Amino acid sequence: MKTRRFERSTLGAMLAGLGLTVLVTSTPYLDRSLLADHIRSGYPTYSDARIDSAVGAYLILLTVIGALGVLAWLGSAWAVKAGKRWARPAATTLFVLGTGLGLTLLLTNDASGDTGLAPVLGWAGMAPSLAGLVAVALLWRGARDGRTMGHDNYARLG
After folding, report:
1. What is the DSSP letter of 131?
2. Which runs of consecutive H residues, i.e. helices, occur in the chain?
3. Whole-model pTM above 0.70?
């Protein structure tokens, strides 16, 4: 019973991270002015066409990052559900990479001296990392407590 609750909790955190990733990835499409206004404030001499081009470049970059995030969440959830012995270290590695990328987007300054990405989008981009932290903590807590992941023999393998 504890194993199923553990698995549901871990998968629930991963699905929350997946949902947050989709939401954060779609946000700039719902309100392009978040990016456009930020670029315009950093580069007031840019023409509308140049701002539109920069917004388009950001949308492509953020979409690729979001798609990779979706694949990472799905792959991690599958590995946990399937009881793969490499699920914990893989999920931890993906968490570190995703959080590092999120912090890079949040904190990196561009040539204007301001952050390249609008701060509201940068902070929103950190939300999936919170779900990742919960998922990784649950995974390693389960390892410490000897709980299985998907298969009864996982504790012996993990």
Report:
1. H
2. 2-30, 33-42, 48-82, 87-107, 119-124, 127-145, 154-157
3. yes
